[in-house]
Amino acid sequence: MEVRRGMSEKKVTMAEIRKTIGTSLGTAFGIVIGMIWTNVVLGAFTTAGIPLTTTGGTWFQWLYFVIVAIIVTLICVVAIVYIGRWGGKE
Q1: Distances (CA, A) of 83 to 17, 30, 63, 69, 71
Q2: Exposed, middle or buried: residue 58 (CB in 10 Å: 0-12, 13-18, 19+)?
Q3: Which of 9, 51, 53, 87 could form a disulfide with 19 if both were Cys (CB 3.0 to 4.6 A apart)?
Q4: The overall pTM is greater than 0.90
Q5: Any idea where the domains of the chain sit in the sequence?
Q6: Is the pLDDT of residue 74 over 90?
Q7: If you average pLDDT over every residue of the chain, what do you get?
Q8: Crossing angle for the helix pair 14-47 and 59-88, nearest 10 degrees?
Q9: DSSP H stretches of helix in the chain
Q10: Which of 46, 38, 33, 36 is nearest to 76 (CA)?
Q11: Tally of CB atoms within 10 A around 26
């Protein structure tokens, strides 16, 4: 695959494309992790009687949310590692 930039030509290798895709997907999974943990923390404050959002709940619901957040985090971290390895192949 060739990409022309101005007067010079540069060939884009599959390794560069994979690295870019891998980095982008890793970033997306990191955002998912951050978003879910934000909700866990906000839920804890709300459950403790310090409402920072409009949602409420019980400690059991909050604990369930923490467990779900941990599972999502582990899945995303594993995906980030595998995508990083895939993106690093030459």
Answers
A1: 13, 12, 30, 21, 18
A2: exposed
A3: 87
A4: no
A5: 11-88
A6: yes
A7: 81
A8: 170
A9: 14-47, 59-88
A10: 33
A11: 19
